[in-house]
Structures are given as structure tokens and as C-alpha cells.
Design a protein that fits this description.
The complex is a heterodimer of chains A (494) and B (276). Helices cover 29% and strands 23% of the residues of chain A. Chain A has 13 helices and 19 strands. Helices cover 74% and strands 0% of the residues of chain B. The chains are: A alpha+beta (494), B mainly alpha (276). Chains A and B meet through helix 5, helix 8, helix 10 and strand 15 of A and loops of B.
């Protein structure tokens, strides 16, 4: 009895010591992002901010992107592709439960895919599902997807945040209470401030190492700098002010990861607005731009020059920067040939990010040097979407296209740059149905070359992906192959 | 001269004002470096002999930017005060001439309406609707100057209307418009000059504020407010980027306020008597 008490006491002291040791490895994290999601349904909005919070953390698809952009098994453990490339049979993992406790079965997959490709669907990337002819439930663990034509990138498409699996039981309130299958559960959203996630203890796979994750939304660069410096946030993903990165790098409290994104930053050009509808004028603009000056001036050196709408880290990338090398003299000649020897005036409408605002001032100065005057107007995102993206009321604008493999937007004549070329549309159709890797690569290269030689837009640089984090955090994604802040493997080092 | 020395604020205020007005005038003919040409290779250089105030994030010379910015600020504020005076003074004179009448009521209630809104809010509203530009900033700042001058003029004119010499003018057969112009206006003009100086400094602050939030002068036109906004993320490693435009705004506004105070000391006989 007496001994027992001492034993108990010793044990509790030991437990205390052990728990103190444990407490050093923090189990919660505060991650800051620039943009707050408008709502929490990744399958019905274009806003990448939704995926930044929820992709892989809360929602999962049949396949998923790895940190390097590779397509890995997600909710589908394995799959078979029929010989004609038209039928995909997915074998789902067993024992997968949604956060509300219901089972994830083939019915949910059918529901999600049918909902996304429905005529009334609000999905922002309906093209991902356009090739699906039929989704068939074989048994609770097996789904057969039939395509109307072979699609080489179908597994890639199914990894997008827009293709995550949702449940019919919880779809009604998904915008405010997202119920997925991921390693984290949604717990709370304080609008204008933060979103809280907590660990899903019933997760089917490797459980998350963190118990709690909080996303905070800070768009102002000055506030972002202050919040990291004061350690109010543990990590800032896609840090908005590149000029502050060297300071963080020199501070032992922090680590700076500079990765690549799928964000082609381009000088989008209204291809139907005179005189920008003239190929020679667009070529003149391309040659008037000094990319390195923009990367140095606007991004403080972070960024890779591009010559076409394609990510340089992709194996199929062709370096076409030579097509639009900096050559103001050639630019002036081209303008003269096009009949604009005295230059012209057009509009340059800039959304809020610093790459656009600063890049815009630099481009305006470079264009002025060859005689092209620009009227700069700074727009908020809502205005930009309304006037430029939807209204097509612009001459030039600067924006980063962050979706992966989005060269297909050039095949859409109603897209805001209004590049309407049947040859490209035909090329892209061929590409969509081609599943042979080598032929696909060849077609992709042709597509890149075509838009580069048509000078559809001014191709500036691949956006860098700077993350500033506490030096003890491990497991953050360095690159951004898709819009995601995957916290499932993140942990604090002791 | 004795009169000028009576005010302790007039001379320093005038000196500061002349410095910045001078910089603005000089910038029309000559600046050390062209501010529309960027030199990225020389960005964020500390003050040196070649660039006394250093260079900004695009490699532009900050001294040149301050000079051109002075021109922008002064032009915007000057025209805005002009709008306020040209519209406000006649309204005030008319209201005073028809004291208690329907016209007086109408003018003054409209003034109250404009006054009821915070002035910068009106400016933000106007530039949001009509687009951000230096011209719209001028109009926006000008509009909220109107009631200031209208009230001031009416108040001063009312006390003059009861004077004997006005009565004499009326007996001589002069109409109210003529009396306002020939007798009232000259006697309220020193008040207007004092108020104009104060409004001028407020106009400079308003322009800087609008430009700071991106609703004032647009690039490539240099503006102090935008220089501040552009440099705020760099303040921790390049404080001179924000220091010089900040000082320029501070000193100009200070100078104009001192000048305004000094002018009031001279023009206002009551204050003069009180001091001696």
C-alpha cells in the first residue's frame, strides 16, 4: 500500500516529465495565407483560396497531387485502364469514412463526378469532366468510368481540387461546413479572420501529425511582414512581399523556402482590340519587354523567365524566350511596319498583387521607351474580374495563371485574351484525346510554340512560391504544383 | 516690414513654402534624373553624392521624385482650392445678400449636406465612381472645399452688410450684386487668403492620402502619397524610401499652416490689438 503510493507518485512525476518533454514538440500550427476563401466548396468555385485551405487536408479525390506534382493514388487505391483507353476501373480504399461518420463508397464517387459534369453544375473546371460519358457503380468499392474518347490526362484531371469526392448527405451545407475524408476535419470559420481544422482521428491513412491547424488570412504585405516577425503566425505560405525574404533568410528563427508554382505570369493582351489585334504590334510589345528587369524590379529576383504559357519545371517545356528577346530597336521597327511609327496608347489594368502593380510600372516604362503609352489603372480583384476577365474591357493586364497545365485556355475563343485560332483549337482537340506520352509531349511542344510565335500574350516569368516558416517546422511543400497547403505531413521538430 | 516681423510664424512658414513651391517650379524645367525612366540595376541605393536622397525600388532618383511629387501635390491642391474659392465665394456672397431668404436657405443646406460627409470619404467615393486619376482627385478635393469657403464668406459678409457704408452704397442705388462685388468681397479677401492657405495644406494632405490608397495620381506621375505606400514593405531595410516623401509632406503642410497662422496674425486686426 505504502509502496504503491510511492510507486504511483513516482509514476506521476515520470508522466509529468514525459509530458513536458512531449510539450516541446508543438502539435498545433498557425498558417497564414493571403486570400480568404469566399466559401468552402472546392467543387463549385474558381477561387483557388478554397483549395489552399482544404485540398488534401479536408477533401480528397480519386487521385492526388504529390509535393512534386506527381499524380498519386488518393481515395482510389489502384485502377485499371482498358486497352482502348476509354474505361477506367477505380478500386477504392476500404474503411474510408467521411468526417460525419458515413462510409465513403462508390456511390459517393458517382455522385461527385455526376454532380460536377451535370449541365447545371457550378464547377469551375467543367472541362476536366467533359470527356466522361458514364460513371457506373460496380460494387461499393469499385467504380467504372467510361470516357467518350481516350484522355491521356484523365488521372491528372481527377487529382484537381475541383474533382474531390463529396457526400450527398452533407452537400447542402458544404459551403459553410465542408465534410470530406481527409486527415483534418473542419472545425470553425471566423469570417475575415481564420479557419480552424482539427485532426481526424478516424483517418484511413497515415494520420496527421498535428492536432490542430489554423489558417489566418493576411493580404496586406506590411501586416504579413509584421505577423511573421512577431511570430503571430508559424508559417506564411505564398508570402506577398519578396523584398522581405532576404531578411527572414538571415534570421535564424525562420526558414525561407522558395519553390516554383504553376503560375505563368503574363502580360495578357486583348487580341481583338485594335491595334493589339495586329500580330506585329504584339510582337513589338514582346520585344520591348525586358523580363530580367521585371523579375529583379518587381520580384526582387524571384522568378524564372518564360517564353510561352508553360511551366519551366515541366519536362515538356520548350524554352522559347528567344522568340521575344529584349530588343527595343526591333520593337520600334515592327511598330513602324505595322503603321504605328509614332506609337499608340492603350490601357494597362492591374490587379492588386505586387507582381502586377510593380511589374505594371516597369512594363509601362519599357513600353514608353518604344513609343507605346499606357494608361495604368489599379483595380481590386472584384473590379478586375468584372472589367477585364468577364467584360474583356482592357488592352493589357498582368496576371499569374496558377492552374496546372492550363494551356487549354488558349483553345477557348471566348477566354479573356480572345485568341481565336482554329489551328490551335484543332491541336488542342488532338491533345485531349491522345494518350501516348511521346505524342502528347510533341503536341504540347507544338502548342507552346504556336502561342509563342503568335505573341498571344507577353510571357514574363514563372511565379516563385515563397514560404516563410518557423525554422522548426518540417514537411511543408516547397513547390506549389497545385493550389494547396497540404499539412498532412507537417510536424514540429523538437 | 515691422508688420511682418510681428508674427513669429510667418517667416519660417514662408521659407518652407517657397522651398517646396520652388522645387515644384524647377521640376517643370529640370530634374536631376528623369523619373519616368527606370534603372532596375540601381534600385534601393542609399543616399550618395550622385543620388542625395538615394534611389527607390525601381532605381529612380528620390530627389527627382520628391520634386515632381511636389509639383503633383501643389498642382492638385492649388486647383482644388481654386475650385473651392471660385464656387464657394459667390455662393457665400449670394447667401449673405439674401439673408434668411429661400436662396440663403437652399445654399446653406446644400453646404450642410456636403459638410455632413467626411471629406476624404467623398473623395474616395468620387474617385471610386469615376476612376482614379489626378484630375478626379482635384475635383474630389475641390468639392469639399466649396462649403468651407461659402460658409466663411457668408459669415464675414453678414457682419459687413450691417455696416453704415454698405447702407450708404445701397442708398446710392447700387444693387446687392454690385455691393457684394465692390464692397463686401474686398473686405473679406484677407480672410479668404488665410483660409485658402490652410485649405491648401489640407489639400496636399488629402492628395497624399488618396494617392496612398491608390486613388490619386497614377503612375508614372510621381506622388508623395504613393511613394510612401510603395515603400512601406521596405521600411525595415531601406527607411530612406519612406523618410524623404514623409518629410516632404510633413514640412510642406507645416510650412503652409505656419504661413496661414502668420497671415491671420497680420490680417486680423482684433488679434493684432490683443497682442500689443
Amino acid at each position: 500500500m505504502r509502496l504503491g503510493k510511492i510507486g504511483n507518485g513516482l509514476f506521476s512525476v515520470l508522466a509529468l516529465v514525459a509530458s513536458m518533454g512531449m510539450a516541446q514538440a508543438k502539435s498545433d500550427i498557425v498558417v497564414a495565407l493571403q486570400l480568404e476563401p469566399p466559401h468552402l466548396d472546392p467543387t463549385s468555385a474558381a477561387a483557388g483560396a478554397i483549395d489552399s485551405v482544404l485540398y488534401s487536408n479536408v477533401f480528397e479525390g480519386l487521385t492526388r497531387f504529390g509535393p512534386d506534382g506527381s499524380v498519386n493514388p488518393g481515395l482510389a487505391e489502384s485502377w485499371e485502364i482498358s486497352a482502348d483507353g476509354k474505361t477506367y476501373t477505380f478500386h477504392l480504399r476500404s474503411g474510408v469514412k467521411f468526417h460525419d461518420g458515413t462510409d465513403m463508397t462508390a456511390e459517393d464517387v458517382k455522385f461527385s463526378l455526376d454532380r460536377a459534369r451535370d449541365d447545371d453544375s457550378a464547377n469551375a473546371q467543367k472541362a476536366l469532366f467533359a470527356g466522361i460519358e458514364n460513371v457506373e457503380v460496380v460494387d461499393p468499392q469499385t467504380v467504372k468510368v467510361t470516357l467518350s474518347a481516350p484522355a491521356g490526362n484523365f488521372l491528372f484531371n481527377m487529382a484537381w481540387g475541383d474533382a474531390v469526392i463529396v457526400a450527398p448527405e452533407s452537400i447542402e451545407n458544404i459551403k459553410s461546413n465542408p465534410v470530406g475524408t481527409g486527415a483534418f476535419k473542419f472545425s470553425n470559420w471566423v469570417q475575415g479572420d481564420r479557419i480552424d481544422l482539427e485532426k481526424n482521428t478516424d483517418y484511413w491513412g497515415t494520420p496527421a501529425k498535428l492536432d490542430k491547424a489554423t489558417f489566418k488570412f493576411i493580404s496586406d504585405p506590411t501586416a504579413a511582414f509584421a505577423s511573421v516577425m512577431a511570430e503571430d503566425v508559424n508559417a506564411f505560405v505564398s508570402f506577398p512581399a519578396p523584398e522581405n525574404l532576404p531578411q527572414f533568410d538571415a534570421d535564424p528563427r525562420f526558414q525561407v523556402l522558395v519553390g516554383s508554382t504553376e503560375g505563368e505570369t503574363i502580360l495578357s493582351t486583348n487580341n481583338k482590340l485594335p491595334p493589339l489585334d495586329n500580330l506585329k504590334v504584339r510582337k513589338a510589345i514582346a520585344h520591348a519587354i525586358d523580363r530580367q528587369a521585371i523579375i529583379d524590379g518587381a520580384m526582387f529576383g524571384y522568378g524564372t523567365p518564360i517564353g510561352t504559357h508553360f511551366a519551366p519545371h515541366n519536362p515538356d517545356y520548350v524554352d522559347l524566350t528567344g522568340n521575344s528577346a529584349y530588343d527595343p530597336e526591333l520593337s520600334k521597327e515592327l511598330l513602324a511596319e505595322a503603321g504605328y511609327a509614332d506609337g499608340f496608347t492603350t490601357t494597362l489594368k492591374l490587379p492588386p498583387p505586387s507582381y502586377a502593380r510593380r511589374g505594371g510600372e516597369i512594363i509601362a516604362a519599357q513600353l514608353r521607351a518604344v513609343g507605346i503609352e499606357t494608361e495604368i489603372s489599379n483595380l481590386e480583384w472584384a473590379q478586375w474580374l468584372e472589367q477585364v476577365f468577364k467584360g474583356k474591357d482592357y488592352g493589357l493586364t498582368i496576371v499569374s495563371h496558377t492552374e496546372p497545365m492550363d494551356i487549354g485556355i488558349y483553345a477557348r475563343p471566348d477566354y479573356y485574351f480572345q485568341y481565336d485560332k482554329p489551328e490551335f483549337q484543332k491541336l488542342f482537340e488532338e491533345l485531349t484525346v491522345e494518350s501516348d506520352t511521346e505524342k502528347r509531349s510533341d503536341l504540347l511542344k507544338q502548342a507552346q510554340t504556336m502561342i509563342s510565335e503568335d505573341y498571344v500574350n507577353g510571357y514574363l516569368f514563372q511565379l516563385a512560391f515563397p514560404t516563410v516558416a518557423n525554422a522548426k517546422i518540417r514537411g511543408l511543400w516547397k513547390d506549389a504544383p497545385t493550389q494547396a497547403t497540404d499539412l498532412t505531413a507537417v510536424y514540429w521538430e523538437d | 516690414m515691422n508688420l511682418l516681423l510681428q508674427s513669429r510664424t510667418l517667416i519660417p512658414g514662408a521659407i518652407l513654402t517657397v522651398i517646396f513651391a520652388g522645387a515644384a517650379i524647377v521640376s517643370m524645367f529640370w530634374v536631376p534624373y528623369d523619373t519616368t525612366v527606370l534603372d532596375i540595376a540601381n534600385k534601393i541605393k542609399s543616399p550618395s553624392f550622385a543620388h542625395p536622397f538615394g534611389t527607390d525600388q525601381f532605381g529612380r532618383d528620390i530627389l527627382s521624385m520628391i520634386m515632381v511629387g511636389a509639383r503633383t501635390s501643389i498642382a492638385v491642391a492649388l486647383v482644388a482650392v481654386g475650385i473651392g474659392m471660385v464656387a464657394g465665394v459667390p455662393l457665400g456672397l449670394a447667401a449673405a445678400a439674401r439673408k434668411g431668404g429661400l436662396l440663403d436657405e437652399f445654399i446653406m443646406r446644400m453646404n450642410d449636406l456636403v459638410f455632413a460627409f467626411p471629406s476624404l470619404l467623398i473623395a474616395v467615393m468620387i474617385t471610386a465612381v469615376f476612376g482614379a486619376s489626378a484630375l478626379n482627385a482635384i475635383i474630389a478635393i475641390g468639392i469639399f472645399n466649396i462649403p468651407v469657403f461659402a460658409r466663411l464668406t457668408r459669415g464675414a459678409a453678414l457682419s459687413l452688410w450691417s455696416r453704415d457704408y454698405i447702407m450708404a452704397a445701397r442708398v446710392a442705388g447700387k444693387g446687392s450684386a454690385r455691393i457684394s462685388l465692390e464692397h463686401i468681397l474686398p473686405n473679406v479677401s484677407n480672410l479668404l487668403i488665410v483660409q485658402g492657405t490652410i485649405q491648401f495644406s489640407l489639400g496636399i494632405l488629402a492628395e497624399a492620402g488618396l494617392s496612398y490608397v491608390g486613388l490619386g495620381a497614377q503612375p508614372p506621375l510621381a506622388s508623395w502619397g504613393r511613394m510612401l505606400a510603395d515603400s512601406q514593405t521596405m521600411i525595415s531595410f531601406a527607411p530612406h524610401l519612406a523618410l524623404f516623401p514623409g518629410l516632404a509632406i510633413l514640412l510642406t503642410v507645416l510650412g503652409l499652416n505656419l504661413l496661414g497662422d502668420g497671415l491671420r496674425d497680420i490680417f486680423d486686426p482684433k488679434l493684432r490689438r490683443a497682442r500689443t
